[in-house]
Amino acid sequence: MPRQTLARIDLEALRHNYATARSLAGDARAMAVVKADGYGHGIRAVATALADIAPKYAVACLEEAFAIREAGLSQPVVLLQGVHDSGDLADCARQGFEPVLHSENQLDGLIRSEHRPAFWLKVNSGMNRLGFHPDQMATVIERLQNSACYPELLGFVTHFACADDPDSPMTADQTARFVAATERWPDRMRSVANSAAHFLPGQQRFDWTRPGIMLYGGSPVLGKTGPELGLKPVMHLEAPLINRRLVRAGESVGYGAAWVADRDTWMGMVAIGYGDGYPRHAGTNTPAAIGGHRIRLIGRVSMDMLAVDLSGAPDARVGDSVELWGGTVGVDEVAACAGTISYELMTGITARVPREISPLPVRE
Ligand SMILES: *Cc1c(COP(=O)(O)O)cnc(C)c1O
Q1: 213 CB less than 6 Å from ligand 1?
Q2: What distance in Å separates the CA atoms of residue 311 and residue 134, rounded to the nearest whole number?
């Protein structure tokens, strides 16, 4: 029998979160961002569960787009980093993948290519990672107009640096720069909003939003948890209690003897560790739960196990399932304790952890 360490994936919650994104998007449509294996949930299951409600998907790279086709789905797929080799443009044209062109290299490759995929142009409105500078837009469009590719230009995208912080003036600045850079081509579509921008009052959302983390129930907003934003947890990370023992006052637990009992304490060992993607930086007092009762981690996380203080769940027995995050303990809380964000935790769950997909009710 396999160990009971697993990530249960609640696809009803995923659909609820997508519906939330869509209603926040107003008149814009929402492309479901399913890169990084559906933020660690399994791209195939996630994309399939959204197939009847999401008109478009977005991924980082070609391999991820093919995973969507291998699941038998035919919606367009946006490649947020475009292609890394212009030879891949043939696949884009054939498969309905929409590359986002962000560099002169990619532009040259497309203009020289005999293939004509529909594509997007990325505007660098201030993130300064990728994209064409607003001052370059006229030249870029002129080059395209003089090429056979121009009719396939779907529109423009940009990406926000600080949308998670409602007090930052940066998002409004970036939006203004994006509008100024693209307003000469009003017949093309525009896309700006990551998850966080769905929650900014008054934010323009144009034609397409790009929700990612919110689909999975993680919070995109500083200082707020997913449930506080009306999102439901999709991943429930669980592992069994494999040992239970009384640690006497003064005794330590685990590597580095990092935690010392200040009184006699019932502690348990849980069969999950950083080899499963549970963060090693989650220290003493990081929350977990058993049977809906909150408990806390003690000592250092090992590769294959971690220790918990069972004072909060005195009836816990070996074999009981411990929730590392899910319905009782939010992934955002664990992320805060580990000095990171829910994105990193969910995408970091390793292949050793089976994803157990909840069946969706059959729909007419
Ligand atoms: C990953 C990504 C998104 C989704 O971001 P979230 O914060 O997860 O909503 C949107 N746009 C681009 C360009 C991305 O790379």
Answers
A1: yes
A2: 59
Phi-psi sector, 299: left (phi>0), alpha (psi -120 to 50), beta: left
The reply to whether ligand 1 has any atom less than 6 angstroms from the CB of 159 is: yes
Q: How far is residue 335's CA from residue 325's CA, in Å, rounded to a whole number?
A: 10
Task: Identify the structural domains of the chain with CATH numbers, from first to last.
Answer: 31-217 (3.20.20.10), 235-357 (2.40.37.10)
Which of 156, 194, 215 is the pocket-test mutation for ligand 1 (most atoms within 8 Å of CB)?
194
Catalytic annotation present for 255: yes
SS3 content of the chain, % helix, strand, coil (to 5): 30, 20, 45
- The C-alpha atoms of residue 69 and residue 76 are separated, in whole angstroms, by 10
Residue 303: which of 346, 331, 271, 330 has the closest Cα?
Answer: 271
Residue 189 counted as an annotated binding residue: no
Catalytic residue at 35? yes
Contact in structure between 78 and 35 (CB atoms under 8 Å): no
Taking the model in full, what pTM does it have? 0.96
Annotated catalytic residue, options 18, 35, 39, 122: 35
Say which DSSP state 248 is in. Answer: P
Nearest CA, atom 1, ligand 1: 212
CA of 33 to the centre of ligand 1 (A): 7
Given a contact cutoff of 8 angstroms between Cβ atoms, the answer to whether 184 and 138 are in contact is yes
Q: Could you identify the residue written with the tokens 């160990």?
A: 3
Query: With helix as H, strand as E and coil as C, how does 259-278 read?
Result: EECCCCEEEEEECCCHHHCC
Query: pLDDT 10s per residue in the chain (364 long)?
Result: 778 999 999 999 999 999 999 999 999 999 999 999 999 999 999 999 999 999 999 999 999 999 999 999 999 999 999 999 989 999 999 999 999 999 999 999 999 999 999 999 999 999 999 999 999 999 999 999 999 999 999 999 999 999 999 999 999 999 999 999 999 999 999 999 999 999 999 999 999 999 999 999 999 999 999 999 999 999 999 999 999 999 999 999 999 999 999 999 999 999 999 999 999 999 999 999 999 999 999 999 999 999 999 999 999 999 999 999 999 999 999 999 999 999 999 999 999 999 999 877 766 5
